[in-house]
Amino acid sequence: MNVIEIGPGPGALTASLLETPLASLTAIEIDARAAPALEALRDRHPERFRLVMADARAVALPALVPAPRHVVANLPYNVATPLLIGWLAEAGAFARLTLMFQAEVADRITARPGSPAYGRLSVLSQWTSDVLIVLRLSPAAFRPRPKVASAVVAFVPHAEQPSPLRFAAMQRLTAAAFGQRRKMLRQALRSLGGSALLEAAGIAPDRRAETLSIAEFDRLASLLPGAIDPPVAVQPDGPAAPTPTAR
């Protein structure tokens, strides 16, 4: 397994990971103050440890190491959500992600339909992966001590993943549905088709977003314009060409 660690800091977890029989470990760190400790680890493990000083939000993780890839991270709370959504968009590139979040975020990721925490992160996470909270930590477990509790969530991506177009459609759908979660779906989804969209999916228009299952969100997303790759015409004696569209 090739492991990618995001935000290793002074390298406490990094050192422990290097004691395991992983194939390689690539650490991405943005804080230059952590560089000396991480460089010392690299010098002790030159064949298995690679250090990348960069902002993880700007790094294409699948390009760093060959599969199978396992991402581990204690995510900074202020960038946890955008990082997670970016990785979920390409979840099929990873064998597993083991990520630490603020406990409230972990509860939202794993929440079930009908619960107050169920929302956009719940749908995107569970649509692409099996998710499970594997560890909860109190503030006393950290130095310096934070003001909030934390939790570790394991993500195991599904064998079948949505296309980039389908994932983008689901992002639009969940943003609209949960952006006005107190409203009935016919109102919350008005910009995406409202009652007509819901009728096509076989979903009552007076339901609210938090009552929909992952399968129902998937059905709605599949009906949005642009959610499916356009057909391609195959030329008998040449390369494929886009299907002509009416002007």
What does the model show?
Residues 236-247 have low confidence and may be disordered. α4 (103-110) packs across α5 (120-128) and α6 (164-179) crosses α9. The chain has helices at 12-17, 35-44, 80-88, 103-110, 120-128, 164-179, 185-188, 194-201, 214-222, and strands spanning 2-6, 24-29, 49-53, 69-74, 96-102, 129-137, 150-157, 232-233, 241-242. The chain has 247 residues and is α/β, with parallel strands linked by helices. It has nine helices and nine strands.
Distance between the termini: 50 Å
Estimate the strand proportion: 15-25%
Overall form: elongated
Helical residue percent?
25-40%
The tally of helices reads 9
- Per CATH, the superfamily of the largest domain is Vaccinia Virus protein VP39
* Secondary-structure element series: EHEHEEHEHHEEHHHHEE
CATH class of the largest domain: Alpha Beta
Radius of gyration: 21 Å
Number of separate domains: 2
From the helix content, strand content and strand pairing, which structural class follows?
A: alpha/beta
Q: Provide the CATH architecture of the largest domain.
A: 3-Layer(aba) Sandwich
